[in-house]
Amino acid sequence: MNRINLIILLDKLEDLIEQAPEIPLTGRVLLDADEVLDLLERIRNAVPEEVKRAEIVSIEKERMLQDARQQAEKIISDAKKEAVKYIKDSEIYKQAQAEAKKILEEAHEKAEELKLHSNEYAKNVLSELEEQLQKTLTVVTNGKVLLSKDELGKSS
After folding, report:
1. What is the pTM (predicted TM-score) of this model?
2. Best CA proximity match to 1, nearest among 51, 60, 58, 36
3. Where are the alpha helices (DSSP H) in the chain?
4. What is the C-alpha separation between 30 and 13, in angstroms, rounded?
5. How far apart are the C-alpha atoms of 16 and 78, rounded to whole Å?
6. How far apart are CA 65 and CA 21, in angstroms?
7. Angle between helical axes of 3-19 and 33-89 (0-180°, round to 10)
8. Is the pLDDT of residue 108 over 90?
9. In degrees rounded to 5, what are phi and psi of residue 20?
10. Of the candidates 118, 99, 120, which has an alpha carbon nearest to the alpha carbon of residue 110?
11. By C-alpha distance, which of 44, 28, 25 is closest to 36?
C-alpha cells in the first residue's frame, strides 16, 4: 500500500469514531470491534511499507551526509597540504630562510668578536692589577726594610 492508502485508512478510522453513537454523560462512544480491528489490521499492513520507505530514505540521507562530510574533510586537508607546500616552495620563504641563516652567521661572528675583546680587556685589567700589586709589594718590602733598620739603630 502506498502513502495515500494509509491516509485513507486513517480517515476511515476517524470517520468511524466520529459517527459512532455516544454514551450519554460519559464522553465515550460505542464502536463495532470487528470493524475497528479490521481497519487497524489494514493500517498495520500499510504502515510497514511506509516505514520501510522512510527508513531507506533516512539511511540514504545519512550515508550521503557522511560521504559529503568525508569529502569536505579531505578537500580541507588537501588544501592545507597544498598551502604549506606553496609557502615552502615560494621565493619569499626561500629568501626568508637565507636571511635567517645570514643573521645567525653574523650573530655568531659578533659573539666571537666580543669574546676576543672581553678576553683582551680582562688580560689588560689583570696586568694592570699585577703591576699595582707589584708596586704595593715593593712599598711593603721597602717599609719592612726601613723598619728593620730603624729597630737596629735603636738597639745599638
Report:
1. 0.35
2. 51
3. 3-19, 33-89, 91-155
4. 13
5. 63
6. 51
7. 140
8. yes
9. -70, 145
10. 118
11. 44
How many Å apart are CA 118 and CA 111, to the nearest integer? 10
Alpha-carbon dihedral angle through residues 112, 113, 117, 120, given to the nearest 10 degrees: 60
Backbone phi, then psi, for 30, in 5-degree steps? Answer: -95, 125
Q: Which residue has the cell 551526509?
A: 65
pLDDT in tens, 124-151: 999 999 999 999 999 999 999 988 887 7
CA distance 54 to 46: 13
- pLDDT over 70 at 42, yes or no: yes
Q: Which residues contact 3 (CB under 8 A, 6 or more apart)?
A: 50
Burial code (b: 16+ CB inside 10 Å, e: under 16) for 24-34 equals eeeeeeeeeee
Question: Locate cell 738597639: which residue?
Answer: 155
Do 23 and 32 contact (CB within 8 A), yes or no?
no
SS3 82: helix
- C-alpha span between 117 and 39 (Å, rounded): 107
User: Whole-angstrom Cα distance, residue 36 to residue 43?
Assistant: 10
